[in-house]
Amino acid sequence: MMALNSDSSMGISDPQCTSKPVVAHIELNCSEPVTQQLDCQLKTLQITVLLAPSGTGKSSLFNAIAGVAPASGGLKVTGQQQLGMPAHKRRIAYVTQSPLLFDHLSIAALLKLVAKQQAQPFDISWAIDPLGLTDKLVYRAHQLSGGQRQRVALLLAMIKGAPLLLLDEVLTGLDQLNKQACIGVIKDYLCKVQGAALLACHQLDDVLALADSCLLQHTINNSTQWQMFPVDEGVERYQQQLLESQSSENIQGSQFTSMFYGQVHAHFPALGLTEYHVGGQRCFAAYNSEHQIGRLQPLILKANRLGLSKIALPESSFVNQLKVRITAFYPVNMGKEQGMLVKVRLANSEQDGVHKPASLHVWITRLSFNQLQPKLDETWYLIGKADALHG
């Protein structure tokens, strides 16, 4: 289990978002390679992720917004119309999925070159060290790893100082430490420029850690349209879309991540634990001193790090035992191992009257499923260690 920090907007919608200034108003129609429409507003500090399988037009939509692919409609950034403007003049910074960096220059020289091309270059010196690139400035692009090149591309994009940031799989290939550093830099940048970001990302735990809203696809009259949801609802809807799609046999249990909310009850630094209460039930996650007692915090569970038990276990190293009700079963494999994804709802999880009862996923092997024989609407216990997922 992992606790997220709502003070930094990690995975939870800002209740004041509706009162924040609009950074971008997008009303785009694209016809290549798929017909799609996007109509949304992005507000200050808002990070919105596009959730859709590969090959459904996310990169094409980003290209249209950035000005490197045709589109019709409207695209305003801080009130200024961007359609019809060349890409380099748009108030948009774009980090592509496969950035092209000049190999004949060092990274330091490349940063200086891009800065000289800007009328008012944005200072990115503060971001170099958090991204782990201080000792890489003398290198050339071909000497860097894929993740390091991606972080250099983020620096280059930020030099533009644009209030709308497009991030196409910017976290792909990064280990957890570098992901957290990258997430921190992105959020700091948006604070400095009072901007907003659109993100394409396939790892749902990264989505929950970074975004506060999601855009999901639905089809109307052979046209793909994007609809916005709060991040927790969007992730749940997207996972349900995956389960109900015709290609569900290709999904993996490791892809399923769930989020619910717990009230911070107590800290136990000597044990490395923080206690949360969820609808009258106790649960524990890794110690986080930044979580204030009494605050509601989002908590993340990954389906393949959990288990089920028909009865409550005696005291053991499994410190989390949450009472749940089974709502659905889906055949989902883990690599070559056959298994079942069990969908459950936390008992008494209305919590503060704001969030609906949480829906969670648990992946178990087909052998375990046959031995346990769980049935719909039965009450079971969700079992997971406090370190079920690391931040």
UniProtKB/TrEMBL annotation:
InterPro entries referenced in this protein's UniProt entry, alphabetically: AAA+_ATPase (IPR003593), ABC_SmlMolc_Importer (IPR050093), ABC_transporter-like_ATP-bd (IPR003439), ABC_transporter-like_CS (IPR017871), P-loop_NTPase (IPR027417)
Sequence intervals crossing the membrane: none
Domain of life: Bacteria
PROSITE patterns associated with the record: ABC_TRANSPORTER_1 (PS00211), ABC_TRANSPORTER_2 (PS50893)
Domain ABC transporter: 17-244
Record keywords: ATP-binding, Cell inner membrane, Cell membrane, Membrane, Nucleotide-binding, Translocase, Transport
Keyword ATP-binding: yes
Protein name, UniProt field: ABC transporter
Organism in which the protein naturally occurs: Pseudoalteromonas lipolytica
